[in-house]
UniProtKB/TrEMBL annotation:
Name assigned to this protein: Clathrin/coatomer adaptor adaptin-like N-terminal domain-containing protein
Location(s) in or outside the cell: Endomembrane system
Keyword Membrane among UniProt keywords: yes
Pfam families: Adaptin_N
InterPro entries (UniProt xref): Adaptor_Complx_Large_Subunit (IPR050840), ARM-like (IPR011989), ARM-type_fold (IPR016024), Clathrin/coatomer_adapt-like_N (IPR002553)
Organism placement in taxonomy: Eukaryota, Viridiplantae, Streptophyta, Embryophyta, Tracheophyta
Keywords assigned by UniProt, alphabetized: Membrane, Protein transport, Transport
Domain Clathrin/coatomer adaptor adaptin-like N-terminal: from-to ranges: 47-435
Keyword Protein transport set for record: yes
Superkingdom as given in the UniProt entry: Eukaryota
Transmembrane domains' residue ranges: none
Organism of this sequence: Aegilops tauschii subsp. strangulata
GO annotations of cellular component type: endomembrane system; membrane coat
GO biological process: intracellular protein transport; vesicle-mediated transport
Length: 457
């Protein structure tokens, strides 16, 4: 027997196997349909192609062509993404999900998430298939079911399938636990009464080492805090120590390529944990006191020369300002915002100005130390930063600094952009209304800088 013939036969067998595993490989009608649609030069031509394809798919559905079901579903999803109605193919999703093989289930669940939403009555028909797949021995099929449930779960489905999701949160497989925790977020959001079922499980997941499981558990804890006051109190008592440990570990961890972003270890987990800490520490002095040290460590050790570091610092400042933090920690947070004001990135400066406006009510004296930098922002080229900085300067004005601050504003009025002069003049006049003794003083300084209708002072 010729060895070349054996080689050819093997190639053909491998190709046939690949086609069975991947029904959307080159040469199938899905690609032909996409090429035909992209080749259309007018909207009318595109509509004609879509009508023709939809008619062919309807005929295949009526004829119960099982061999082409997966291909037709892929084509329907593409047509749906173009904005055309595809409701006639919803039942095909359910048939594919009910199939035994993973490739069919994968395309069926994808179609389910794209073509249906929680308001569709057809969705209730898939509950039984979801329950079977959540109990499947194949972890990948379980993952498909969890992903679909987490995206389109209705209140009725949440009540029916919550026990299966709870069981999967105890799985040995990290990916299954991660997906089950994220699915639980949707369940708690749809049925807040089920929050108590997940409190203990969420707290136990915070002891995991896998970052994917941790970030999902933190997200679930955050949703539980929003859904139930009982859950909030439970997590305050049982989770704060674990959160501090997670934040300390991830802050002090060595380089790990899997989680590293611009030299910072898993900034996404950093930010999620800080947000949850803010919820737990708000209005609770004991929790706030427990997290003071780790917040100070994050605020001082995180580098600010990368966007990932700035994102962590921003969230850390928000957390410090949101909890019952010590005065020293708040001063540290406000000083970080002062550094943000000197950053070249306009977005960073804008968010810093926003937080400083809230910080005035907490520690006005610490904000006053940065008024020179804030005044420079009033003269910035960016209109949004100018306006926000002007609002902040207005809040900073008091009896002791009113003269130098107002003089700076009036001096800038002479050279300000015409579009900005109206806002600037209105703020100066508002300051003068609050402190009447300044009125004549301002007129003497202002010269011809004020509009005609302001001279009522």
């Amino acid at each position: 027997r010729d060895p070349k013939l054996d080689t050819v036969e093997k190639i053909v067998e491998d190709f046939a196997s690949d086609m069975a595993l991947n029904p959307f490989s080159s040469g199938t009608r899905l690609r032909d349909m996409i090429r035909a649609i992209r080749a259309c030069k007018t909207a009318a031509e595109e509509r004609a192609v879509v009508r023709r394809e939809c008619a062919a798919i309807r005929a295949a559905i009526s004829g119960d062509g099982q061999d082409l079901r997966h291909r037709n579903m892929a084509k329907l999803m593409f047509i749906h993404m173009l904005g055309y109605p595809t409701h006639f193919g919803q039942m095909e999703c359910l048939k594919l999900i009910a199939a035994a093989g993973y490739p069919e289930k994968r395309i069926g669940y994808l179609g389910l998430m794209l073509l249906l939403d929680e308001r569709q009555e057809v969705l209730m028909l898939v509950t039984n298939s979801l329950k079977q797949d959540l109990n499947h021995s194949n972890q990948f099929i379980v993952g498909l079911a969890l992903c679909a449930l987490g995206n389109i779960c209705s209140a009725e489905m949440a009540r029916d399938l919550a026990p299966e999701v709870e069981r999967l949160m105890r799985s040995r497989d990290a990916n299954t636990k991660k997906k089950a925790a994220l699915c639980s977020v949707r369940i708690v959001r749809k049925v807040p009464d089920l929050a108590e079922n997940f409190m203990g499980l969420a707290a136990s997941l915070l002891k995991e080492k896998h970052h994917g499981v941790l970030i999902s558990a933190v997200q679930l804890c955050t949703e539980l805090c929003k859904a139930s006051k009982d859950a909030l109190e439970y997590l305050r008592k049982n989770c704060i120590e674990g959160l501090v440990r997670i934040l300390r570990d991830v802050s002090n961890s060595s380089y790990a390529p899997e989680y590293d972003v611009a030299g910072i270890s898993d900034p996404f987990l950093h930010i999620r944990v800080l947000k949850l800490m803010r919820m737990l520490g708000q209005g609770d002095a004991d929790c706030s006191d427990y997290m003071n040290d780790i917040l100070a460590q994050v605020a001082t050790k995180t580098e600010s020369n990368k966007n990932a570091g700035n994102a962590i610092l921003y969230e850390c400042v928000e957390t410090i300002m949101g909890i019952e933090a010590t005065s020293g920690l708040r001063v540290l947070a406000i000083n970080i915002l002062g550094r943000f004001l000197s950053n070249r990135d306009n977005n960073i400066r804008y968010v810093a100005l926003n937080i400083l406006m809230r910080a005035i009510t907490v520690d006005a004296q610490a904000v006053q130390r940065h008024r020179v930098t804030i005044l420079e922002c009033v003269k910035d080229a960016d209109a949004s930063i100018r306006k926000r900085a002007l609002d902040l300067v207005y809040l900073l004005v008091n009896d002791t600094n009113v003269k130098p601050l107002t003089k700076e504003l009036v001096d800038y009025l002479q050279v300000a952009d015409p579009d900005f002069k109206e806002d600037l003049t209105a703020k100066i006049c508002s300051i003068a209304e609050k402190l009447v003794f300044l009125s004549l003083f301002l007129v003497g300084w202002g010269g011809g800088g004020f509009p005609y209708d302001v001279w009522h002072f």
